[in-house]
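Hi R.,

Here's the chain you asked about this morning:
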Amino acid sequence: MKKIHFVINGRFKHTEKTIKEIEDAFGDEFLVWVSVTKGNGHAIELAMNAVLGGTDFLIAAGGDGTMSEVINGVMKVEKSKRENLIVGLYPFGSGNDFARTFKFSKKLSDLKELIINNSASPIDIGKLEYKSMRGENAIRYFNNIADIGLGAEVAKRVNEGKKIYGPNFDFFKATVLGFLNYKRKQVKIKSENFNWSGRLLILCLANGKYFGSGLGIAPRAEINDGKISITLAAEVSLLDYLKNLARIRKCLPVDHPQIIYKEVESCIIEPIGPECLIEADGEMIGKIPLKASLLHNEINFLASKKT
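And the predicted structure, written out as tokens:
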């Protein structure tokens, strides 16, 4: 029998119930392993060990943070040792933005159908080379979206705040407060076909389409086209944002002279003055200067062939 390994976010309230549901759903047809995270970063270690242990399927059970850590754990293993690995997502959590790109359901039966049908395709993975908060050289991979500027400040507010009213409200409140308090930073962006410098509100480097609990910030992003989809907003106000919020939630482009959409294979972002923070898949990771690139068709990922 094939091996399937679930990495579950230990912050989830119904962990024991979920483990039983997983064992009941898969136990007759697979060798099932379940690991539960004990804190930030633990899913990276658990995922790496699962891959080295020879699992056939590795499933992140949680939200965007768990999925991102599982991806980073996979990327710690050299590619020759994971060529037949299939990675998947059982979505529950505060964000689930990566799941939105694939229109995933939250039903375990739908995940099982994908696995039984071996419905997997290669997806791209983003690579970030940057400075950690302590000023050390660091590397992080992202499957969904990385950004600098306002988005990083919003992620910081959400992660440090009390999550009482649900993710949509938490992100909306943090975004409004961010617009009111964030001081735009001067940055310079260089790539093979796009160069820009100026006062930046937010720069999104996208592989998936959504972030911030349902904001379709990157309508031109494709998960397997070998390109980073850039969304850049410069002199955009809170009023501009609120007027276009419905379009953003529908993942439609916004027609504004200070919003730019581009696709690049790689880019370098440098500060002109004060440092600017970086967020990747909902987690604050460091600060620019930053080199971003894309690894084309890097991981086999469970998703409907229609996606």
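The chain has a mean pLDDT of 91.

Let me know if you need anything else.
M.
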